[in-house]
Design goal:
Elements lengths: L2 E5 L4 H13 L3 E5 L10 H6 L7 E4 L2 E4 L1 H12 L10 H30 L8 H17 L13 H13 L11 H11 L4 H20 L10
Parallel strand pairs: 1-2
Antiparallel strand pairs: 1-3, 3-4
Helix pairs in contact: 1-3, 1-6, 1-8, 4-5, 4-6, 5-7
Length: 225
Protein backbone atom coordinates (compact mmCIF):
# COMPACT_ATOMS: atom_id res chain seq x y z
CA UNK A 1 0.00 0.00 0.00
CA UNK A 2 1.20 3.55 -0.70
CA UNK A 3 2.23 5.80 2.16
CA UNK A 4 -0.53 8.37 2.58
CA UNK A 5 -0.01 11.87 3.94
CA UNK A 6 -2.91 14.02 5.06
CA UNK A 7 -1.57 17.52 4.55
CA UNK A 8 -2.01 21.09 3.40
CA UNK A 9 0.83 22.64 1.43
CA UNK A 10 0.43 25.98 3.22
CA UNK A 11 1.26 24.36 6.57
CA UNK A 12 4.97 24.65 7.50
CA UNK A 13 4.79 21.34 9.38
CA UNK A 14 3.47 19.59 6.28
CA UNK A 15 6.12 21.19 4.11
CA UNK A 16 8.83 19.83 6.43
CA UNK A 17 7.49 16.33 5.77
CA UNK A 18 7.39 16.93 2.01
CA UNK A 19 11.01 18.13 2.06
CA UNK A 20 12.13 15.07 4.00
CA UNK A 21 10.23 12.59 1.86
CA UNK A 22 11.63 14.13 -1.32
CA UNK A 23 15.19 14.01 0.04
CA UNK A 24 14.67 10.31 0.80
CA UNK A 25 13.01 9.65 -2.58
CA UNK A 26 9.95 8.34 -0.72
CA UNK A 27 6.74 8.59 -2.72
CA UNK A 28 3.70 9.82 -0.84
CA UNK A 29 0.04 9.62 -1.73
CA UNK A 30 -1.14 13.11 -0.83
CA UNK A 31 -4.58 13.72 0.67
CA UNK A 32 -5.17 17.46 0.90
CA UNK A 33 -7.01 18.76 3.97
CA UNK A 34 -8.48 22.26 3.89
CA UNK A 35 -7.93 23.34 7.48
CA UNK A 36 -9.65 26.67 6.89
CA UNK A 37 -12.81 24.77 5.95
CA UNK A 38 -12.27 22.59 9.07
CA UNK A 39 -11.83 19.42 7.03
CA UNK A 40 -9.44 18.20 9.73
CA UNK A 41 -12.46 17.35 11.88
CA UNK A 42 -13.75 14.93 9.25
CA UNK A 43 -14.69 11.67 10.96
CA UNK A 44 -12.42 9.62 8.70
CA UNK A 45 -9.36 11.61 9.78
CA UNK A 46 -10.45 11.61 13.43
CA UNK A 47 -10.66 7.81 13.33
CA UNK A 48 -7.03 7.73 12.26
CA UNK A 49 -5.86 10.62 14.42
CA UNK A 50 -8.07 11.56 17.39
CA UNK A 51 -6.03 14.75 17.72
CA UNK A 52 -7.24 15.60 14.16
CA UNK A 53 -4.05 17.46 13.23
CA UNK A 54 -2.01 17.61 10.06
CA UNK A 55 0.35 16.30 8.94
CA UNK A 56 -0.85 12.76 9.58
CA UNK A 57 1.03 9.88 7.96
CA UNK A 58 -0.49 6.46 7.29
CA UNK A 59 1.98 3.70 6.42
CA UNK A 60 0.01 0.45 6.22
CA UNK A 61 -1.23 -0.04 9.79
CA UNK A 62 1.06 2.63 11.27
CA UNK A 63 -0.46 6.07 11.86
CA UNK A 64 1.80 8.92 12.97
CA UNK A 65 1.10 12.57 13.54
CA UNK A 66 3.40 15.45 14.57
CA UNK A 67 5.84 16.50 11.88
CA UNK A 68 8.97 15.78 13.91
CA UNK A 69 7.85 12.24 14.62
CA UNK A 70 6.93 11.73 10.97
CA UNK A 71 10.25 12.93 9.55
CA UNK A 72 12.29 10.89 12.02
CA UNK A 73 10.15 7.82 11.23
CA UNK A 74 10.70 8.26 7.50
CA UNK A 75 14.47 8.49 7.91
CA UNK A 76 14.63 5.54 10.31
CA UNK A 77 12.51 3.31 8.09
CA UNK A 78 13.33 4.41 4.56
CA UNK A 79 16.71 6.14 4.69
CA UNK A 80 19.54 4.28 2.97
CA UNK A 81 21.89 5.86 5.50
CA UNK A 82 21.42 7.97 8.61
CA UNK A 83 22.92 11.37 7.73
CA UNK A 84 19.53 13.11 7.91
CA UNK A 85 19.03 11.81 11.47
CA UNK A 86 22.30 10.35 12.76
CA UNK A 87 22.30 7.35 15.08
CA UNK A 88 25.52 8.46 16.79
CA UNK A 89 24.49 9.89 20.16
CA UNK A 90 26.29 13.25 20.05
CA UNK A 91 25.20 14.06 16.52
CA UNK A 92 21.63 12.98 17.23
CA UNK A 93 21.56 15.17 20.35
CA UNK A 94 22.52 18.18 18.24
CA UNK A 95 19.74 17.43 15.77
CA UNK A 96 17.22 16.92 18.58
CA UNK A 97 18.34 20.19 20.16
CA UNK A 98 17.48 22.12 17.01
CA UNK A 99 14.23 20.19 16.56
CA UNK A 100 13.29 21.33 20.06
CA UNK A 101 14.11 24.91 19.10
CA UNK A 102 11.79 24.50 16.14
CA UNK A 103 8.91 23.13 18.25
CA UNK A 104 9.45 25.38 21.27
CA UNK A 105 10.28 28.66 19.53
CA UNK A 106 9.78 28.78 15.77
CA UNK A 107 6.50 26.93 15.31
CA UNK A 108 4.54 28.62 18.16
CA UNK A 109 5.76 32.03 17.00
CA UNK A 110 4.83 31.49 13.35
CA UNK A 111 1.56 29.77 14.18
CA UNK A 112 0.47 32.67 16.40
CA UNK A 113 1.27 35.27 13.75
CA UNK A 114 -0.30 33.48 10.78
CA UNK A 115 -3.38 32.42 12.77
CA UNK A 116 -3.96 35.99 13.94
CA UNK A 117 -4.03 37.14 10.32
CA UNK A 118 -5.73 34.25 8.53
CA UNK A 119 -8.19 33.06 11.17
CA UNK A 120 -8.69 36.03 13.50
CA UNK A 121 -8.56 38.59 10.65
CA UNK A 122 -6.17 40.94 12.42
CA UNK A 123 -4.93 43.68 10.10
CA UNK A 124 -1.85 44.73 12.05
CA UNK A 125 1.16 42.75 13.25
CA UNK A 126 2.17 43.76 16.77
CA UNK A 127 5.67 44.95 17.61
CA UNK A 128 5.98 42.01 20.03
CA UNK A 129 5.44 39.57 17.18
CA UNK A 130 7.91 41.42 14.98
CA UNK A 131 10.47 41.33 17.79
CA UNK A 132 9.94 37.59 18.24
CA UNK A 133 10.84 36.99 14.59
CA UNK A 134 13.97 39.13 14.68
CA UNK A 135 15.10 37.47 17.92
CA UNK A 136 14.64 34.05 16.32
CA UNK A 137 16.67 35.20 13.31
CA UNK A 138 19.47 36.33 15.66
CA UNK A 139 19.56 32.96 17.40
CA UNK A 140 19.54 31.01 14.15
CA UNK A 141 22.33 33.18 12.80
CA UNK A 142 24.37 32.38 15.91
CA UNK A 143 23.64 28.65 15.55
CA UNK A 144 25.08 28.82 12.04
CA UNK A 145 28.22 30.77 12.95
CA UNK A 146 30.56 27.78 12.68
CA UNK A 147 28.59 25.27 10.63
CA UNK A 148 26.89 24.98 7.27
CA UNK A 149 23.71 23.51 8.73
CA UNK A 150 21.95 23.80 12.06
CA UNK A 151 23.37 20.61 13.58
CA UNK A 152 26.77 20.55 11.88
CA UNK A 153 28.02 20.33 8.32
CA UNK A 154 25.44 17.82 7.09
CA UNK A 155 21.85 18.50 6.14
CA UNK A 156 19.43 16.96 8.68
CA UNK A 157 15.74 16.83 9.47
CA UNK A 158 16.31 19.75 11.85
CA UNK A 159 17.09 21.92 8.83
CA UNK A 160 13.98 20.73 6.99
CA UNK A 161 11.72 21.47 9.96
CA UNK A 162 13.27 24.84 10.70
CA UNK A 163 13.39 26.06 7.11
CA UNK A 164 9.67 25.42 6.71
CA UNK A 165 8.99 27.80 9.61
CA UNK A 166 11.76 30.28 8.78
CA UNK A 167 10.55 30.60 5.20
CA UNK A 168 7.07 31.28 6.57
CA UNK A 169 8.51 34.01 8.80
CA UNK A 170 9.93 35.69 5.69
CA UNK A 171 6.36 36.35 4.60
CA UNK A 172 6.31 38.89 7.42
CA UNK A 173 9.98 39.92 7.59
CA UNK A 174 12.64 39.07 5.01
CA UNK A 175 16.03 37.86 6.18
CA UNK A 176 18.48 40.75 6.09
CA UNK A 177 21.76 39.63 4.53
CA UNK A 178 23.58 42.36 6.42
CA UNK A 179 22.11 41.58 9.84
CA UNK A 180 21.93 37.79 9.54
CA UNK A 181 24.62 36.70 7.04
CA UNK A 182 24.84 33.09 8.23
CA UNK A 183 21.09 32.59 8.22
CA UNK A 184 20.83 34.27 4.84
CA UNK A 185 23.40 31.90 3.31
CA UNK A 186 21.70 28.86 4.86
CA UNK A 187 18.32 29.91 3.48
CA UNK A 188 19.73 30.72 0.05
CA UNK A 189 21.37 27.28 -0.12
CA UNK A 190 18.02 25.70 0.66
CA UNK A 191 16.30 27.64 -2.10
CA UNK A 192 18.88 26.27 -4.52
CA UNK A 193 17.93 22.65 -3.79
CA UNK A 194 16.33 21.10 -6.86
CA UNK A 195 13.28 19.98 -4.90
CA UNK A 196 12.81 23.10 -2.75
CA UNK A 197 10.17 24.82 -4.87
CA UNK A 198 7.88 21.82 -5.27
CA UNK A 199 8.09 20.80 -1.62
CA UNK A 200 8.25 24.15 0.18
CA UNK A 201 8.19 27.07 -2.22
CA UNK A 202 4.83 26.39 -3.84
CA UNK A 203 2.95 26.10 -0.56
CA UNK A 204 4.79 29.10 0.84
CA UNK A 205 3.73 31.21 -2.14
CA UNK A 206 0.09 30.21 -1.64
CA UNK A 207 0.27 31.17 2.03
CA UNK A 208 1.98 34.43 1.11
CA UNK A 209 -0.88 35.30 -1.25
CA UNK A 210 -3.46 34.42 1.41
CA UNK A 211 -1.76 36.64 3.99
CA UNK A 212 -1.73 39.57 1.57
CA UNK A 213 -5.41 38.99 0.80
CA UNK A 214 -6.31 38.87 4.50
CA UNK A 215 -4.32 41.98 5.33
CA UNK A 216 -6.00 43.80 2.47
CA UNK A 217 -2.74 45.43 1.48
CA UNK A 218 0.83 44.51 0.59
CA UNK A 219 2.79 43.47 3.65
CA UNK A 220 5.37 45.91 4.99
CA UNK A 221 8.54 43.91 4.46
CA UNK A 222 10.73 46.75 5.66
CA UNK A 223 9.74 46.44 9.30
CA UNK A 224 13.03 44.89 10.35
CA UNK A 225 15.43 46.85 8.16
Amino acid sequence: MPIKLFYNEMSPSCRAVLLTARALAVDLELEKVNIYAKEQIDENLIRLNPDHTIPTLVDNDVVIWDSHEIVSYLVEKYGEEDSLYPKESTQRALVDQKLNFDSDTLFPMINAIISSIVIENEKEISTDKISAITEAYKLLDAFLEDSTYLAGDCLTIADFCCVANVSTATIIIPISTEKYPNLSTWYRNFKNLEYYEETNGDGLNKLDALVELKLGRPRNKELCD
